[in-house]
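Reply to dn_fold:

You asked what the input looked like. This is it:
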Amino acid sequence: MRKLVTFFTSLLVVALFLAPIGEARAASFSDVGTTHRAKEEINFLVDRGIVQGVSPTKFAPQRNVTRAEAAIIIGRALEVDGSPRATRFKDIENNSFASGYIEELVEKGVLGGYGDDTFRPSNQLTRGEMALMINRAFYEPTSSNAVAIQKLMNEGIAQGVKDGTFGEKLPLIRSDFSVFIARVLDDRFAIPKDQRFVKQKFVDVKEGPVLNMRSGPSADTALVTSIPNGSIVRLAIDTKDGATWVRVKAGDKVGYVHSGYLSDKKPTHVSTNPNSPLAKKLIVLDPGHGGSDPGAIGFGYAEKTATLAISNYAKKYFDQSPFQVAMTRTNDTFVSLANRVRFAHNRNADAFVSIHINSASSSSATGLESYYSASRAAGDIRASRALTTYMQHRMLEAWGLSNRGVKTAPFYVIRWTNMPSTLLEMGFISNKNDNYRIRTPKHQEQMGRAVYLGALDYYYHYEGYKNDVAPLYSKVGAKPSPRRH
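and this is what came back:
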């Protein structure tokens, strides 16, 4: 029975590789043609007699490569004597078409067998085994998969698979093996240096479920995608030690991330469900004023200080949820109104919350009010009104001040943003009682929580994400509000 299996294996190898050299090119293969991603590499190898089709019209690019096939391809690439001969393996017949290549490559230390004196020629070749074979054949011999894989990635021969790993246990297909061999033999096929991503890192975000990938090395650039915590990314080959922003590849996306959120080890903590649809929602918090623009001042305390403090408290709540969050300013700097709007647009934000403190000439003026813009498309107006309404009621709940209502106004940041937007006036800095809440950390934290809960209410009731939002309330000791829109 063993000889019968070996006989049929030999016939298969002959069928795959005994076709006359140069008989067909990739364009002649109906399953490759002129559009297949590996057509150039396949043509290159076919012209040199290194690979052949499974028939005059078929290449079978998706078929898995066997160990015997790999021996023949590498042997031909090395131009070794592949004449059939006796081998040291009991499962290889002397007249097997692959026998000469196998024995020659074993002698050169490129290939090896198993402890039971078998070669197992019909076994599928894995990507990890491929890395070892190519390294031993064309680079430096190694018995370490990790070393072999790193070498191939550094040289632009191979890259990882979609999950960020190398996929070393995955079977190798004929088209990919053709690409790898072509890249080894001719560096014009190699991956360009600026497209090589080699060193593996893990996303490690302790404050939230995702890491934002940007189009450039700055938080002010456009959002490319959000990478779930614990995911693997690979760094560009030219990454400099100590760089604050690094170019990475995650899946099929390429962009920049902050290096402070990358680790050599997979994090043991992974907060909230990164697959939640809420993980794709970005809330922009806009702390009003800043820098040379202090805003209103009352009893020696500036509006810009309160808005930043409250926004920071709100961000801490969002960071414990699947939501993404970004702030138009994170310190005492001036940001123009146009740049605040541009900040939200560049990130494709889903909601915009501008945080302000009121003031009046009369010290008796008190209370909470909030605004949306009516100078927008009808759908945007409805969404903005709903967001503003839910925020207003959570602010009232937090501080217990008088209700000055939900209003409309053409304020720049809520008129020109193209997503649901609201501007909140959190008490009067000119009123002693309001001022106490505005400047006290305990009450600032309460208002930050109110902003977070207002967003939850909006997504729970208006956007309809009830199942995803519901569990988030209990984490902060709250319940959904009544439906208000």
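The chain has 14 helices and 15 strands.
Hope that clears it up.
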